[in-house]
Design brief:
Radius of gyration: 20 Å
Strand order of the largest sheet: 1-2-3-4
Number of helices: 9
Largest sheet: 4 strands, antiparallel
Strand content: 15-25%
Structural class: alpha+beta
Number of strands: 10
Distance between the termini: 46 Å
Shape: globular
C-alpha cells in the first residue's frame, strides 16, 4: 500500500456527515434566494453545460447576516452525491494532480459558484472547478475544533469576509471556535472574531478609501444584467480563441497570476512562444502548499507589479 493511498484512506475514515451551517439573518439590500439561485443556474449552464445542481451553502458575515450562497454542481451530469462521497472524491482528485498535469485541460467532477445575497455587491463573486471549503477542508477543521471543544462540536457557520472564508464550530454547551481557511489563526468566540474583522476593515478603509455609493451603483447595474440572463452583456470585448488561455496555479498574488495567463495566451495565439520561457515548482508559504507549473513570467510580473 502506497503512502498516498494510506493517507487517503486515513482521511476518508475521519469523514462524518457534515451538517449544513446556519443561514443567518437577512442582510441589507437583500436579494431573494430565488433570484440568487436563478443566476447560479444560468451561469452554470454556460460554464458547465449539463451540470446538475447539488448543495447550496449559506455564507454569513461577521454580524451573522447571510451575504452569499455557495452553489455546488456535478459537472459530469450524474446525480450529486452525499457529503462523504464528495469529500472523498475531492481528496482523490488532488492525488491525480502532479507537476506534469496540464491544468488548462484538467477537469473535476464538481464545480462551485459563489453568488452574492446583496444587491450592492457583485452578483457572481467567484466560480471554478472543484468544491468549496465545506467539502474540501471542513472535516480537517472539525478534527481541530474537537481538540478544544470536545467530540460534540459541529459546524455552525461559514463566514465570508472577502476574499476569505472562516469556519465556526460549536458544542452543546455553547463553546465556539472560529478557524481560518488555512488553520493559521483561531478565535475562541464570535465576539473575538467579529472584533478582528471590524478592525481589519477599518484599517483597510483608512489605507484605501472607497466610494460605497458609486460601487453600489455599479453592482446594481450588474444585477440588472444578471436578472435578464443576458450573459453576453458581461463581455464587452470578444476574445478570439479564448480556449487557448492557459490556467496557471495561483502564486505570487492574483494580479501576477492573471497577468501570466494573458502572456501565455499571447504566446499560444500568436504562436511566438517567446514570453513564457520555462516552468518550475515553488513552495507557497501563503497557502502552505507546493505550486506546480509556475511560468517564469509570473514571478517577473510579481516583481514589476
Amino acid at each position: 500500500m502506497t503512502k498516498t493511498f494510506a493517507a487517503l484512506l486515513a482521511f476518508i475514515s475521519l469523514l462524518v456527515a457534515m451538517p449544513m451551517p446556519g443561514s443567518g439573518t437577512t442582510p441589507p439590500n437583500a436579494v431573494p434566494f430565488e433570484t440568487i439561485q436563478k443566476v447560479a443556474l444560468t451561469w452554470a449552464a454556460t460554464e458547465y453545460p449539463g451540470a446538475r445542481l447539488g448543495t447550496a451553502i449559506p455564507y454569513v458575515d461577521e454580524n451573522g447576516n447571510t451575504v452569499a450562497w455557495m452553489f455546488h454542481f456535478r459537472t459530469d451530469g450524474k446525480s450529486f452525491p452525499g457529503y462523504d462521497e464528495v469529500a472523498a472524491d475531492v481528496q482523490a482528485e488532488r492525488q491525480t494532480l502532479t507537476m506534469n498535469t496540464d491544468l488548462s485541460r484538467w477537469r473535476s467532477k464538481y464545480s462551485h459558484m459563489l453568488v452574492s445575497a446583496r444587491r450592492d455587491r457583485a452578483p457572481v463573486v467567484c466560480f471554478g472547478y472543484g468544491t468549496s471549503d465545506y467539502y474540501a477542508i471542513a472535516a480537517q477543521a472539525l478534527a481541530r475544533a474537537r481538540q478544544s471543544l470536545g467530540s460534540d462540536a459541529q459546524l455552525s457557520r461559514i463566514y465570508f469576509v472577502s476574499p476569505s472564508t472562516y469556519l465556526e464550530f460549536e458544542n452543546t454547551t455553547g463553546g465556539r471556535v472560529v478557524l481560518s481557511e488555512h488553520f493559521e489563526r483561531t478565535w475562541d468566540s464570535r465576539e473575538a472574531f467579529a472584533g478582528y474583522v471590524v478592525a481589519a476593515k477599518a484599517d483597510m478603509n483608512r489605507q484605501f478609501p472607497d466610494d460605497e455609493a458609486a460601487c453600489a451603483a455599479v453592482h446594481e447595474r450588474e444585477w440588472q444584467k444578471a436578472a435578464k440572463h443576458d450573459l453576453g452583456s458581461f463581455s464587452e470585448v470578444f476574445v478570439p480563441n479564448s480556449e487557448l488561455a492557459p490556467f496557471y496555479d495561483w502564486s505570487y498574488g492574483c494580479t501576477p497570476t492573471s497577468g501570466a495567463m494573458v502572456l501565455g495566451y499571447i504566446d499560444r495565439f500568436q504562436k511566438s512562444g517567446r514570453l513564457v520561457d520555462f516552468f518550475y515548482q515553488r513552495r507557497d508559504n501563503v497557502e502552505g502548499e507546493n505550486d506546480w507549473q509556475i511560468p517564469n513570467v509570473q514571478y517577473e510580473c510579481a516583481i514589476e507589479m
